[in-house]
């Protein structure tokens, strides 16, 4: 009787994806592009059907390569030495338009809401703690890059056992893993659920960390006109702005009839981060602008 040799333990290390990582990602994903020519683009293609079928394979591969080489993607790789073991993709929810077409995932979110949307771990590395390590790294990356809330869309089996879920259906992760990481369910229980982890006030890359704020401290990095507009909608302290959030405060000012431009939104975010709005990273400005445009505002009166 042949004895089965114990599996070699991986020394799992994780890090954020870098611009030069395309060869490693292509090696990890293999000829199938992780699964069925997806190349981790499913969430970024707004529609399914014929649109998705045309994207599968080489178009998706080119699109992902461009994102990686431009430094325009948020993702984490796991390694055992030089050997890639796994991939986890995340980013601002606005980066994933397909989520709005999944009824179970619809809900309130803003520019500081991020989503962890995909895991890929080859068969040889599954069941060895790689996904758990990737998720821990993804949480830290989201926090470092300014996320306030991190969403996840795991699948649940009837028995609540991860072992009962085929790998092809577990690419968004499983409920038990997110529960262990501190996420909490934020939707009805079902085959597809929304789980959320509060990360606290996100801090943009390059922004100076402010000192602890007294609840009644006046707003900083805002001009007198902006402070007057905020006061008119009941926001006069940092604590009040934190409760409303930059996007919520901006909407309230706009709804009061003020012709406020996106610069006000950037200034509000800067006030929360204790940095002048001109110092905000461009990617954060883009996310804020996208979130602002996704909500309708009444025609300004003044």
Characterization of the model:
By secondary structure, this protein is of the alpha+beta class. It folds into two domains: 12-198, Aminopeptidase (3-Layer(aba) Sandwich); 224-293, DNA polymerase, domain 1, CATH 1.10.150.20. It contains nine helices and seven strands. The protein has helices at 22-29, 49-55, 58-69, 130-144, 175-180, 224-232, 238-255, 262-273, 282-293; strands at residues 12-16, 74-80, 83-92, 113-120, 149-152, 184-185, 195-198. It has a seven-stranded mixed sheet, with helices on both faces. A hairpin with a 2-residue loop joins strand 2 and strand 3. Helix 7 packs antiparallel against helix 8 (262-273). The longest helix is centred in the C-terminal third of the chain and has 18 residues, at 238-255. The protein is elongated. The N and C termini lie far apart (86 Å). Residues 1-6, 202-216 and 296-302 have low confidence and may be disordered.
């Amino acid at each position: 009787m042949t004895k089965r040799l114990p599996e070699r333990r991986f020394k799992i290390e994780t890090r954020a994806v870098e611009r030069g990582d395309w060869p490693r990602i292509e090696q990890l994903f293999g000829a199938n592009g992780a699964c069925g020519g997806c190349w981790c683009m499913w969430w970024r293609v707004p529609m399914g059907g014929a649109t998705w079928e045309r994207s599968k394979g080489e178009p998706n591969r080119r699109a992902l390569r461009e994102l990686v080489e431009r430094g325009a993607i948020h993702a984490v790789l796991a390694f055992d030495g030089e050997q890639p073991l796994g991939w986890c993709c995340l980013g601002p929810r606005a980066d994933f338009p397909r989520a709005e077409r999944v009824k179970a995932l619809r809900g309130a979110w803003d520019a500081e809401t991020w989503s962890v949307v995909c895991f890929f771990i080859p068969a040889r590395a599954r069941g060895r703690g790689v996904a758990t390590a990737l998720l821990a790294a993804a949480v830290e990356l989201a926090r470092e890059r300014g996320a306030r809330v991190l969403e996840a869309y795991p699948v649940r089996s009837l028995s609540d056992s991860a072992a009962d879920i085929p790998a092809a259906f577990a690419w968004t992760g499983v409920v038990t893993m997110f529960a262990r990481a501190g996420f909490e369910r934020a939707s009805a229980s079902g085959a597809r659920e929304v789980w959320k982890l509060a990360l606290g006030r996100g801090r943009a890359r390059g922004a100076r960390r402010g000192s602890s704020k007294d609840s009644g401290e006046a707003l900083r990095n805002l001009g007198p006109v902006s402070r007057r507009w905020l006061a008119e909608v009941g926001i006069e302290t940092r604590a009040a702005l934190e409760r409303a959030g930059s996007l919520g405060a901006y909407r309230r000012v706009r709804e009061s009839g003020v012709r406020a431009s996106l610069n006000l939104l950037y200034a509000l975010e800067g006030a929360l981060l204790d940095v002048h709005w001109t110092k905000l990273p461009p990617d954060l400005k883009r996310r804020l602008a996208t979130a602002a445009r996704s909500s309708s505002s009444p025609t300004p009166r003044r």
